[in-house]
Specification:
Elements lengths: L7 H18 L4 H8 L3 H8 L6 H10 L4 H8 L5 H8 L2
Helix pairs in contact: 2-3
Length: about 90
Amino acid sequence: MFLINKLDGEIMIELGKKLRQLRKSKKYKQQELADRVGVSRKLIIDIEAGRGTSLLVFVKVLKVFKRTNRLLEILDSSPISPKEMYKKENR
């Protein structure tokens, strides 16, 4: 199923599972990751459970795992302005 068809909570749970798998594949304990990111272990537990976090913490976690390359795709994906998008969609 595509992400667009999933509920927000389902996406958060899936992201949490992926981050847990990534952490375990790097053999990091939750406390080690928390220390590297600069947050509490409780916050890492919450993220892995899909209970959310700030965008800043999410980016910091991705940086620890050197997984920020996809963020640039998001930032560079829309060269047209929101006003131009609105006009295009409402013709």
